[in-house]
């Protein structure tokens, strides 16, 4: 939580041992930050509990594996849809290929990033529960469906948000590389500094976006 120390975050208790939730104020707007865990089942359960606490607008942030070598590490990616290669989302939506972020949040994310001069890519994320089954064949199949990156939570959380009437968008940063030749961690000498800078950028952008959403909803 060192990235949010200046906002004096307060931990929400009682809460389960699997998740951490902190509340804080950003320019007069109440916000929270939650660690939801890795993988759709765990993150989905955590998201359900955060929603139960009253969250109505949210942004999913974190690292994703790049499926294209030309997408350099740390590049920001805004997903416009997610391929449902996990099980959790099927408890919230009828079977389909994709789940989608909130159109409101997607627009607010893009508008804010453009106005602040933050470069990003748009595309489809492939969500899977099985990172050790990110095979060449699956990579090819899902890239044909538009995937440029892979994660373990997005499609499930989009489905949960839609089911619960919550607005959820996402901003990712490109991390490791999943290519035809194999897997690369893409860890470089400046890794720690670039990671910290990227996390701070994601948090700053997310808070700015949510603040704008609050203003928009207040005056609409």
Task: Describe the protein in words.
The structure is a single chain. This protein has one domain (57-219): Rossmann fold (3-Layer(aba) Sandwich), CATH 3.40.50. It has 220 residues and is of the alpha/beta class. The protein has helices at 40-52, 103-115, 136-144, 154-164, 191-219; strands at 10-11, 20-26, 29-35, 57-66, 76-85, 98-99, 121-128, 147-151, 167-179, 182-184. The mean pLDDT is 92. Helices cover 34% and strands 30% of the residues.
Précis, in short:
The protein has 220 residues and is an alpha/beta fold. The protein has five helices and ten strands, in the order βββαβββαβαβαββα.
Strand content: 25-35%
Derived from helix and strand composition plus strand pairing, the structural class reads alpha/beta
The neighbouring-strand order within the major sheet is 4-8-7-5-9
CATH names the topology as: Rossmann fold
CATH level-four homologous superfamily name: Nucleoside phosphorylase domain
């Amino acid at each position: 939580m060192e990235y949010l120390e200046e906002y004096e975050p307060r931990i929400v208790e009682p809460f389960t041992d699997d998740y951490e939730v902190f509340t804080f104020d950003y320019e007069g707007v109440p916000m929270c930050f939650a660690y939801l865990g890795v993988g759709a089942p765990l993150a989905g359960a955590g998201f359900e509990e955060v929603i139960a606490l009253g969250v109505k607008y949210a942004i999913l942030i974190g690292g994703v594996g790049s499926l294209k070598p030309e997408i350099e590490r740390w590049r920001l990616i805004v997903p416009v849809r997610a391929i449902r290669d996990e099980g959790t989302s099927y408890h919230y939506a009828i079977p389909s290929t994709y789940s989608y972020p909130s159109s409101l949040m997607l627009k607010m994310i893009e508008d804010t990033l453009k106005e602040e001069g933050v470069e990003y890519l748009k595309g489809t994320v492939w969500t899977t529960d099985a990172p050790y089954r990110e095979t060449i064949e699956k990579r090819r199949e899902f890239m044909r469906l538009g995937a440029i990156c892979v994660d373990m939570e997005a499609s499930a959380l989009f489905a949960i948000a839609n089911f619960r009437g919550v607005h959820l968008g996402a901003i990712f940063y490109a991390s490791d590389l999943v290519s035809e030749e194999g897997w690369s961690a893409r860890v470089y000498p400046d890794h720690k500094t670039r990671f910290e800078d990227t996390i701070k950028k994601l948090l700053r952008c997310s808070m700015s976006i949510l603040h704008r959403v609050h203003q928009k909803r207040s005056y609409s």
